[in-house]
Design a protein that fits this description.
This is Helix-turn-helix domain-containing protein. By secondary structure, this protein is of the alpha+beta class. It has one domain. It has three helices and three strands. It has a three-stranded antiparallel β-sheet with strand order 1-3-2. A hairpin with a 4-residue loop joins β2 and β3. It starts with a strand and ends in a 13-residue tail after the last helix.
């Protein structure tokens, strides 16, 4: 599915100027049809999958209890 720059900006919750800048830099692949740039949204699927994996890993890390330190001695 192809989207225009404004549609892509709304999809990614980013400013249109930043999306256009990324397209011109080649960081986002796009096709120019003579009037406007069209961005294929399938290129973002991997990004969103990796983002979800990173969120899951962070939540697992946060849920892991801090182990007792074997070097700490009880003063009592």
């Amino acid at each position: 599915m192809y989207m225009t720059i404004p549609e892509t900006a709304a999809f990614l919750s980013m400013p249109e100027e930043q999306i256009l800048s990324y397209v011109l830099e080649g960081r986002i692949r796009a096709v120019h049809d003579g009037e406007q740039y069209l961005v294929n949204t399938s290129q973002f699927e991997t990004h969103f999958q990796q983002l979800e994996l990173a969120k899951q890993a962070l939540e697992e890390w946060r849920a892991t209890p801090i182990p007792d330190d074997v070097d700490i001695q009880d003063e009592d």
